[in-house]
Amino acid sequence: xxxxxxxxxxxxxxxxxxxxxxxxxxxxxxxxxxxxxxxxxxxxxxxxxxxxxxxxxxxxxxxxxxxxxxxxxxxxxxxxxxxxxxxxxxxxxxxxxxxxxxxxxxxxxxxxxxxxxxxxxxxxxxxxxxxxxxxxxxxxxxxxxxxxxxxxxxxxxxxxxxxxxxxxxxxxxxxxxxxxxxxxxxxxxxxxxxxxxxxxxxxxxxxxxxxxxxxxxxxxxxxxxxxxxxxxxxxxxxxxxxxxxxxxxxxxxxxxxxxxxxxxxxxxxxxxxxxxxxxxxxxxxxxxxxxxx
Length: 293
Hints:
The N and C termini lie far apart (50 Å). The chain has 10 helices and 11 strands. By secondary structure, it is an alpha/beta fold. It folds into 2 domains: 85 residues, Rossmann fold (3-Layer(aba) Sandwich); 134 residues, Rossmann fold (3-Layer(aba) Sandwich), CATH 3.40.50.
């Protein structure tokens, strides 16, 4: 079987070209979408991710305001900053990069962001709207997965989708999005997790397997039926002395063993990752549109 490797970079670029047109149209109305980015501490992975987001904003014509705070920033200081962005008319989306230092209550900070600027889609109000199928900001990574499927002409209606992972960021919201009565939903969804007795027994039944658990090469060829679609959301650092940096990135899927066995497969990196940032830009632009109405 010939396996189609889904190019997330190519799909993300196609979406960004459309978004650039929308930003240009908003500029004629004197509206510049604005994203407020907050990074607390100096975690290398978080810093790299925030830098990539800021670069993407610049390329799109989106205004990005960068707030890089020391790791000893207090919870009160961070909440005060979030509140100032809540009322700032130049900022349409607020991104607080996770994880936060241990002394800061992550839940409290995220709930401080007003729903209208919650472009990560993490606030309880926006999560509730998502579950009810109402218009809202969808979490970026799950939304990116739906876009990968859509642009690859992979239908979800009537399909059995098995999601491995139940995080609040990917697994849970993705399951909710896939069961919605919509063109990107109408699937039958099974969610596996660390307490699932036999994950392979579940994934072998799936038309579409989505791995989002953070365990290198967890999903192997014997766990997936021939011809299935496999979407790998995991990003793991694995020690590799042959690499200059001493490590390589890999997903939750044993990529090489699945090539030639499944119909569609996403790589890591270059699969879901580029769509995550793209959907953050999408949400920021949607927020700017709403503010201009």
